[in-house]
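Weekly puzzle thread! Below is a chain. First person to post its structure in token form gets bragging rights.
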Amino acid sequence: MKKTIPALLLLVLTASCLSGKKDLTVLAETVEDEEEPLPERYESDDLPKAADELFDDFFYYYAGNSSLQQRRTLFPLEVTDADGKKSVVEDSSWTTDRFFMEQGQYVRIFDTQEQLDLPGDTTVDNVVVEQIFFETDSVRQYLFLRNEGRWQLTAIKHQALKSNPNAQFLHFYHSFATDSAFQQKSLNKEIAFTGPDPDDDFAMMEGFITPDSWEAFAPELPRDSIYNIVYGPQNTWTKEKTFVICGIANGMETVLTFQQKRGKWKLVRIEN
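Winning reply:
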């Protein structure tokens, strides 16, 4: 039997989700004051083995330490602009990039449910970190490769948003995040929900949200620019996208699943 979650209960669930705590990942605890620089905590290039096994673990070290970032960047670093013109950046000109550490969140956009396991796959050795600028319809891509067991930034590429494999979905997402009327029209008639049970800290509950209840439970969505981590090949023509919002300071994830229905994207599931 389908269970529709009333708006009042959704408000309780929202409060429960926001109060949840998890152990922070490497350097996450440093994002406390955006005006203060992240501390230089790792002065040696001898990272723990696990940090080079999974890209996410490596990247927290990489983004949080200037000297390590210098050593794990392939200089002279090749940079390609949106017109295909190439240039290089020398190590003496490199400015430490904190990526999404000070922004406090990043996203993962997946084409299939199977791809959700890629962040924990130790065989992945090619990852792209994308910074997507909606105002300028442009994307900056950071290309990371793992060579002989060591992750390294190997190149930067700039592209017009329309050239990105996720271009069509990203244009939809920006409208979904910034236009409340468009967002309401882009909700499925029933939105599957999975989240913490407010009556039991160790249990999850499942049910359905209807569009008239959505406003009470809609998560805060990144709008101006987003960082997307790409762990594998992207499928331009897929009719499903899973959009995962990953919090840095609180370690929480919000998973939004969209499907194309009659040529239009619809939100069909949300998981906390």
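Puzzle host: Confirmed. Bonus trivia for everyone else. The CA atoms of residues 74 and 250 lie 32 Å apart.
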